Amino acid sequence: MELFIRKIWKIWLLASLSLGLAPFLPEPHVWGKIRWIAGGAVGMSTLDWLDFLFHGAPWVLLITSIILIATRK
């Protein structure tokens, strides 16, 4: 699994820039969710949390692949 994540970092980058930020206006969607959570997540439903995970997953995979590439021996 580690090799798989490390090898396709370009796909994670593309997914992060497209799916991870969509919709782009008025602000990136995942950024709005992060601000909402930082503000206490008042009023967030289960659907909002799943939406946050859906838009945040490409970022987690991209960061993981970058760390794996950087620490490769």
Which terms summarize this structure?
70% helix; mainly alpha; 73 residues
What low-confidence regions span 5 or more consecutive residues with pLDDT below 50? none
**First CA to last CA: what distance?**
17 Å
Largest sheet geometry? none
Number of helical regions? 4
Portion of residues in beta strands equals under 5%
Radius of gyration: 14 Å
Structural class: mainly alpha
Write the H/E string, N to C: HHHH
Shape: elongated
Summed over residues and divided by their number, the pLDDT gives a mean of 83
The count of domains is 1
What is the count of β-strands? 0
DSSP helix fraction: 55-70%
In short, what is this structure?
With 73 residues, the protein is mainly α. Helix content is 70%, strand content 0%. Helix 2 packs antiparallel against helix 4 and helix 3 crosses helix 4 (46-70).
Description:
The protein has 73 residues and is an all-alpha fold. It has one domain. The protein contains 4 helices and no strands. The radius of gyration is 14 Å and the shape is elongated. It starts with a helix and ends with a helix.
Secondary structure layout:
Elements: H1 2-7, H2 9-18, H3 29-38, H4 46-70
Helix pairs in contact: 2-4, 3-4
